[in-house]
Predict the structure.
Amino acid sequence: MDCLFCKIAAGEIPSKKIYEDEIVYAFYDIQPAAPTHFLVIPKAHTMENCAQINEENAQIMGHIFQVIARLARQLGLEENGYRVVTNCGEDAGQTVRHLHFHVLGGGPLGKMA
Ligand code: 5GP
Ligand code: ZN
């Protein structure tokens, strides 16, 4: 499958990796929208976006959010807070059709659009 994030998770395209395990891969966004901006993705391309979360695949969400909480803590974002965003489809501006969660922090983020 010709998917950018599948290639990043497989190490075929270089990225600034923060963490990986058998289920998820976390790396810094190439175009940061905040002082700290990283992405957490499931390695398996089973969901294009959060609209495809269902009974069968929902378990992975708990793992993703545990990883987000741990990495945010390790990167010093916990004290002042951070934002977790997932763009779902065209109106949200989703550009990569492989489920991913943006984690933004490291300074005031302003209001949501
Ligand atoms: P979306 O707009 O789909 O929610 O988010 C896609 C994100 O992937 C964007 O924030 C964009 O900057 C990031 N991105 C696109 N191409 C690359 C890349 O090659 N490497 C990394 N690290 N991030 C990328
Ligand atoms: Zn993919």
The longest strand covers residues 36-42. The pocket of guanosine-5'-monophosphate (ligand 1) is lined by residues 4, 15, 27-31, 87, 93-96 (CB under 6 Å). DSSP finds two helices and five strands in the chain.
